[in-house]
Amino acid sequence: MSALLIRNAKILTMDGTRPRAEALAVAHGRIAAVGDEDHARAAAGPGAREIDAGGRTVLPGFIDPHNHLLSTAESLAAVDAGYPAVTSVADLVEAIAAEARHTPAGQWIRAFGMDDAKYPEGRPTRRRLDEATTEHPVIIYHVSGHQAAVNTAALQHAGISDDIADPAGGALLRDEGGRLTGMVVDSAMELLLPLAVDIGCHGPNFHTDLPADQLLGWLAAARDPYLSAGLTTICDPQVSKRELRTYRAARAAGTLPLRTVGMPLSHQLDELTAIGLAGPFGDDWLRLGAMKFYSDGTLLGGTAKFTVPYGERGQFAGSMYWEPEQLRDLVTRAAREGWQVAIHTQGDAAMAHTLAAIDAAVKVSGPDPRPRIEHCGFPTVEQAKRFTDYGVIPVNQPNFLHDSGGDFLRRLGDRAHRLQPMREELDLGLRPVLSSDSFVSSLRPLDTIANAVRRTTREGASIGAEQAITLHEALRAHTLDAAHALGMEDRIGSLAPGKLADVVVLDRDIESVPVERLNEGAAWVTVLDGEVAYDGRAVEV
Ligand SMILES: [Zn+2]
Q: Where is the Amidohydrolase domain (predicted)?
């Protein structure tokens, strides 16, 4: 493990005692010194590798506190059905047909990211997908992850015909004649692909049963996209035995791409309690953090629970996973065991139940409970104020405002401007964080940061400009405050002597970039655990 000197840099340390510096030294996997070049050079010692940053910005490695690493790895290996790669049903059919041409007959074709709200033809039908292939079962996941479109071969593969009844908590959509259209919603998705785990009604199940060596290979291949984006730590917000087994195997094989924190889904509370296990548990590479719960459904899928239903015709009444007292009891039981809690919550009606659960949970938690609210879409002004009573950490994903902001403006009207009110949360003294929810949106932190600063939709419309935050606030929310959300701010998230040496040298001076081009940057060099783990200098022209 050789020492490293980074000099001639614009270092934003996120450390209040020394916010800016020009050089830093790394030795033995730790930050050895931060300051002027002479001081850092002395700390690095003779023979240290040297990086002349050429005036580029240097930051603590980015931390994504809500990033489905394994599912992202799966999606990176599948057909990209995301917008704007696919903008219509016709595009979708063509993309699947292209994949079918080099896929052995009978093998599943999987695609991720379908955003059919943007298709001129509306939702795809299985008849259209049959035009792409009848030789392969096809499943195309909706961008929300909670719905899918399938072809006839997929239905036949699963033994599903028109006379099947809808399962509890899900549906197979039908035409006027009662025939299946190929759209499957929520729990009905489980009828198609075998699942690795039974999670009951604790959340959406995307834990598909796939061969372990395939999952491990995809995870290893995700290293480059993650490290080239400057990420050094992620938190997978929905871990079952499928994820934890794969992460453990990757760790043992040396192929875990970056530091990984897992949040077990609440269906495992009793089993973990039975063996006396609660988070935080593990080490600086692989650990369990908070426990994950679901309050309502998804904003994109039309199942978020608002006091006033949304949609152009008020057609989305939303749905809850639990009765209020069930959620409160579940969350409180976990808190009593020592778990930090993290509750998926979008609409204001769901937020009321979530706050009631948090109110009960913090009474039995330790002195620093840090309850997280995942997505935290639409807290009212009063609800946001109540966050300060408990130190709630809102876990935001402003990429949604960009990717789907036009749909939100249409479906939510003026309420869309109050989605993810980060300005207000910061002004209240909270420590909201930024995350991607990858595979649902881009995993690149500079996309997320740009969207938090700009708050404009893909089409260029403003969405809640008064809730925009500054570049420096956004950088902090993706580094130091993200570490705080994971309870790891003593080790990562800032550049100070003694901390783990996770550092990103960006490919530009980010402070001099115009706002509209903030998203264009990437990592130039990523240092993980004291080693150069990604080096973009070789690919520069
Ligand atoms: Zn998520």
A: 49-534
